[in-house]
Design goal:
Elements: H1 10-19, H2 28-47, H3 52-63, H4 68-91, H5 97-104, H6 119-129, H7 135-144, E1 147-151, H8 158-169, H9 174-177, E2 178-184, H10 187-199, E3 204-210, E4 215-221, H11 223-227, H12 230-241
Parallel strand pairs: 1-2, 2-3
Antiparallel strand pairs: 3-4
Length: 275
C-alpha cells in the first residue's frame, strides 16, 4: 500500500517541523494549542494591561507543563511565525499561514470536520466584496475614513485576511482604514486569528464567544486596535452618525384601528399566501 502524505505547503514546512519536534509527551494537537495560547498572551500582555495579570497566570500554568528546553523552543517558534508571515507579505501579500499549518498537521481531524476556507477562496471572496464597483464601501470610507467588518465565525481569520488583501490590491490600507470584530466559539481559532491580525497590524477585536447565544467569555484586542485608539474612533463615529429622534404625539392615533387596503388570499390550510 502506498504511503499517504499530508499536503504540506512550502511556507508551512518550517513551522510544522518545529511544532512536531517539541516533545513526545504531548500530542501535536496539544502542543499547537498551548503554543497558540502562549504566543497570544505574550502579545496581549504588552498592550492590554487590564487583562495582563489574569493572562499571565494562565501563561505560567501552561509553560510549567514543559521543561525549560521545551519552553524555550516554543518561544522560538513565535519567531518562525513572524519570519514566515513577513516573507509571505513581501512576496505574495497577506496570507493565512496558521490555517494552512492547521490542515497540514491534520489537526482538523481532531475537530470532527472543522475545516477552514482555502485562502485562494478567501482572496476571491475578498475581491468580490471589495471590488471597487460597489459605491457603499467608498462612500463609507469618505464619510468616516474607515470600514467596519464583522466575522461571526472567524476561524483562523482567513476571510478577514482575504478582505485585507483585496483592500491592498485596491490601493487601500487595512491597517488604517479597517476595524474588525471577529467571534469564534473555539479559543484556538480566537488565538489563530488574533495572532495573525496582530502581526499584520490590523485593528481588531477578537471575541471568544457564541455568535448565536451572544455569550462572551474573553476579549482579545490587537495592538493596532489599542494603540490606534480605535475604541474612541468607533464610538466617536457612532455618535457622529447617530440620527436625532423626534417625538410625535400620537396619543389619539393609538385609539384608531389600523386600516388595511390589501387583502391576502388564504389557502385551504388557512395559511396566508403572498402570491
Amino acid at each position: 500500500m502506498a504511503k499517504r502524505y499530508s499536503y504540506m505547503p512550502n511556507e508551512c514546512k518550517e513551522l510544522c517541523d518545529a511544532l512536531t519536534s517539541v516533545s513526545d509527551r504531548y500530542s501535536t494537537w496539544q502542543i499547537f494549542e498551548d503554543w497558540l495560547a502562549m504566543s497570544s498572551i505574550s502579545i496581549s500582555n504588552t498592550v492590554d494591561w487590564l487583562q495582563a495579570p489574569e493572562r499571565e497566570k494562565q501563561y505560567m500554568q501552561i509553560v510549567k507543563k514543559y521543561s525549560k528546553t521545551e519552553a524555550e523552543r516554543l518561544a522560538k517558534f513565535f519567531g518562525i511565525l513572524v519570519k514566515t508571515l513577513d516573507k509571505e507579505f513581501n512576496t505574495t501579500g497577506i496570507t493565512d499561514i496558521l490555517g494552512k499549518v492547521f490542515h497540514a498537521l491534520n489537526l482538523h481531524n481532531k475537530y470532527h470536520g472543522q475545516f477552514f476556507t482555502p485562502f485562494h477562496v478567501c482572496e476571491f471572496m475578498g475581491l468580490c466584496t471589495f471590488d471597487g464597483s460597489e459605491p457603499s464601501a467608498e462612500t463609507q470610507l469618505k464619510e468616516q475614513n474607515f470600514l467596519t467588518l464583522l466575522e461571526p465565525c472567524i476561524g483562523s481569520g482567513g476571510l478577514v485576511l482575504g478582505f485585507c488583501k483585496a483592500m491592498n490590491i485596491r490601493n487601500h490600507n487595512p491597517q488604517q482604514e479597517l476595524c474588525v470584530t471577529g467571534v469564534d466559539i473555539d479559543i484556538k481559532c480566537v488565538h489563530m486569528a488574533y495572532l495573525q491580525l496582530s502581526l499584520f497590524g490590523i485593528p481588531a477585536v477578537i471575541i471568544h464567544g457564541n455568535s448565536l447565544t451572544m455569550e462572551e467569555w474573553s476579549v482579545w484586542k490587537t495592538p493596532a486596535y489599542i494603540l490606534g485608539f480605535w475604541d474612541f474612533k468607533t464610538k466617536h463615529t457612532q455618535n457622529k452618525t447617530k440620527k436625532e429622534t423626534v417625538t410625535v404625539d400620537d396619543s389619539n392615533a393609538n385609539n384608531v384601528p389600523p386600516k388595511f387596503d390589501i387583502e391576502y388570499p388564504v389557502n385551504r390550510n388557512g395559511q396566508m399566501s403572498l402570491f
